[in-house]
Write a sequence for this structure.
């Protein structure tokens, strides 16, 4: 499985500034219907977040201000990815462990999700995630 999958968003702009538009129902770059949108901001220095995977949920993470890193893990390989562009979204597939860290002071991380919040979709224990991801679920 390829860990790092980027989506390029079209930037519209002129001397007044830039704009990125995502329109539901139009031809869009996001490979799923967006059911939930949230953003993370004011994350303190040295704080890490995430530490979970989803059974079915897919997400696109976009750093719309500042920067952060996301560690992706499919149960076999780990990759640290740097997010720092409002025109690039990181596609995070199902069964992908994620750890978000190294947030800059002005970081705003926007997340587009394929489903509404559902606690039963989370895998929050890394050892359990490894068992499931490697096909050894009991």
């Amino acid at each position: 499985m390829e860990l790092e999958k980027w989506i390029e968003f079209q930037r519209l702009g002129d001397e007044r500034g830039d704009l990125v538009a995502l329109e539901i129902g139009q031809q869009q770059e996001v490979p799923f219907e967006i059911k939930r949108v949230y953003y993370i901001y004011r994350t303190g220095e040295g704080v890490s977040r995430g530490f979970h995977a989803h059974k079915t949920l897919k997400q696109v993470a976009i750093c719309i201000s500042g920067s952060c890193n996301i560690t992706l893990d499919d149960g076999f390989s780990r990759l640290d990815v740097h997010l720092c562009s409002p025109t690039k979204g990181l596609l995070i597939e199902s069964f992908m462990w994620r750890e978000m860290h190294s947030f800059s002071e002005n970081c705003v991380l926007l997340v587009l999700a394929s489903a509404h919040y559902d606690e039963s979709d989370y895998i929050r224990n890394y050892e359990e995630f490894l068992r499931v991801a490697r096909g050894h679920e009991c």
Q: What stands out?
A: The mean pLDDT is 92. The first helix runs from residue 126 to 133. Residues 5-11+28-132 form a domain with the Jelly Rolls fold (CATH 2.60.120.10).
